[in-house]
């Protein structure tokens, strides 16, 4: 049990976690690393599970309520002896014995997190409290997937982790961005007060195969629209920017953060920055050159610019993204073609 926090402050630690089953110390038993992935049936979560399952020393448990995720994303692991899938809502306590927790459970696409905002904030606050309670009880290390949305509509560009953000506390996005900010606070309070080992990743826009076709986020929308021959819906003004990270780079960054020595928060994202008009033009050029681009109304509080400063990730985790947008989009196109049943002309 740690006695000093990463910033040198003294911590009050409560009672230590119970000892694990004697079986884990038995001479002839090689214990595996037991890893819980909440939200593991979703887009990033299922890719993370694939990577974790590659290591034969890992046992993976997924807890998911299937709000935006699906069993289909995990079908290759169902029935595997090192894998378990639990239908569970993180707003309820969970009793499992694990060594690490990747806490991803939360809808991520704006149309889904705004659909039931009260549930979104409960997922972020009560869900994170429950997972921290679990981490405390069993002595597990816990990683939270926070978001670039904690910077709100940023007034500093690119965004370093030291920036405190510019967030509307009462807007339609607040259930998500303020929810994640409270989740980060809870993580640090459990760390300082109870000595829990924490990791916080601030994820910037991530894309790749397995995103829901009707997820509503911009990359999946544009690819699905181009493949269906529908016009690409660029929300006004179209000059707003995002920086897109391919999912395999993201998973690599999350695992390095979990395995490393630093609590974070650490930005994980690709600094390649594009306006939404540039993204639409790239999708058009790569997938369907004759598709139209249609300017449509935007939603409130849409951040005007976003680009991660990844100096910390490079220095502390030895991580930087490898896949450029132009290389990642065709991989996603291939997956969408398969799922939509539209072959290349
Ligand atoms: N993809 C991105 O660009 C991005 C950016 C920043 C942060 N993140 C964070 O990464 C995580 C995963 O995002 P994603 O893109 O894979 O989204 P996703 O919607 O595909 O996955 C979220 C998963 O969480 C599950 N879930 C939602 N509420 C739950 C609850 N109450 N109990 C149990 N399970 C629940 C969903 O069913 C789904 O499987 C989220 O925490 C999100 O906030 C993602
Ligand atoms: O069809 C569309 C959808 C979206 N957009 C624009 O594309 C930009 C990105 O929108 P998205 O919905 O993909 O995602 P956002 O960047 O707004 O939010 C995301 O940020 C980080 C994560 O936490 C979440 O995955 C999500 O909240 C916005 O400016 C939006 O106005 C379009 O131009 N057309």
Automatic annotation (TrEMBL):
CDD domains on file: UGD_SDR_e (cd05230)
Compositional bias of kind Polar residues: 1-10
Co-factor requirement: NAD(+)
UniProt keyword terms in alphabetical order: Cytoplasm, Decarboxylase, Lyase, NAD
CC annotations in GO: cytoplasm
Entry's Gene Ontology BP terms: D-xylose metabolic process; UDP-D-xylose biosynthetic process
GO molecular function: NAD+ binding; UDP-glucuronate decarboxylase activity
Disordered: annotated segments: 1-22
Reactions catalysed: UDP-alpha-D-glucuronate + H(+) = UDP-alpha-D-xylose + CO2
Pfam families reported for this sequence: GDP_Man_Dehyd (PF16363)
Domain NAD(P)-binding: 36-330
Subcellular localization: Cytoplasm
Entry EC number(s): 4.1.1.35
Pathway involvement of the protein, from the record: Nucleotide-sugar biosynthesis; UDP-alpha-D-xylose biosynthesis; UDP-alpha-D-xylose from UDP-alpha-D-glucuronate: step 1/1
Biological role stated in the UniProt entry: Catalyzes the NAD-dependent decarboxylation of UDP-glucuronic acid to UDP-xylose. Necessary for the biosynthesis of the core tetrasaccharide in glycosaminoglycan biosynthesis.
Family: Belongs to the NAD(P)-dependent epimerase/dehydratase family. UDP-glucuronic acid decarboxylase subfamily.
Protein name: UDP-glucuronate decarboxylase
């Amino acid at each position: 049990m740690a006695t000093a926090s990463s910033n040198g402050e003294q911590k009050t630690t409560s009672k230590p976690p119970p000892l694990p089953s004697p079986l884990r110390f038995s001479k002839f038993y090689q214990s595996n690393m037991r890893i819980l992935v909440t939200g593991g049936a979703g887009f990033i979560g299922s890719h993370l599970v694939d990577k974790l399952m590659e290591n034969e020393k890992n046992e993976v448990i997924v807890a998911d309520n299937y709000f935006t995720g699906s069993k289909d994303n995990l079908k290759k692991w169902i029935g595997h002896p090192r894998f378990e899938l639990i239908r569970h809502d993180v707003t309820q306590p969970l009793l499992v014995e694990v060594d690490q927790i990747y806490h991803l459970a939360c809808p991520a696409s704006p149309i889904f997190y705004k659909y039931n905002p009260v549930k979104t904030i409960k997922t972020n606050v009560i869900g994170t409290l429950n997972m921290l309670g679990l981490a405390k009880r069993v002595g597990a290390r816990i990683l939270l997937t926070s978001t670039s949305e904690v910077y709100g509509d940023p007034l500093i560009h690119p965004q370093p982790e030291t920036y405190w953000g510019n967030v509307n506390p009462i807007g339609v996005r607040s259930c998500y961005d303020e929810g994640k900010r409270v989740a980060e606070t809870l993580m640090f309070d459990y760390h300082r007060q109870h000595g829990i080992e924490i990791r916080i990743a601030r994820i910037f826009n991530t894309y790749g195969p397995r995103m829901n076709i009707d997820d509503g986020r911009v990359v999946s929308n544009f690819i699905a629209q181009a493949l269906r021959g529908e016009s690409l819906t660029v929300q006004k003004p179209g000059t707003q920017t995002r920086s897109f990270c391919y999912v395999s780079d993201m998973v690599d960054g999350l695992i390095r953060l979990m395995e490393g020595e630093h609590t974070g928060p650490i930005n994980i994202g690709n600094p390649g920055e594009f306006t939404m008009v540039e993204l639409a033009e790239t999708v058009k050029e790569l997938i369907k050159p004759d598709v139209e681009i249609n300017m449509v109304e935007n939603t409130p509080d849409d951040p005007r610019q976003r680009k991660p400063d990844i100096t910390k990730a490079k220095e502390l985790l030895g991580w930087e993204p490898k896949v450029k947008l132009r290389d990642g989009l065709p991989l996603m196109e291939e997956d969408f073609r398969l799922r939509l049943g539209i072959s290349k002309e």
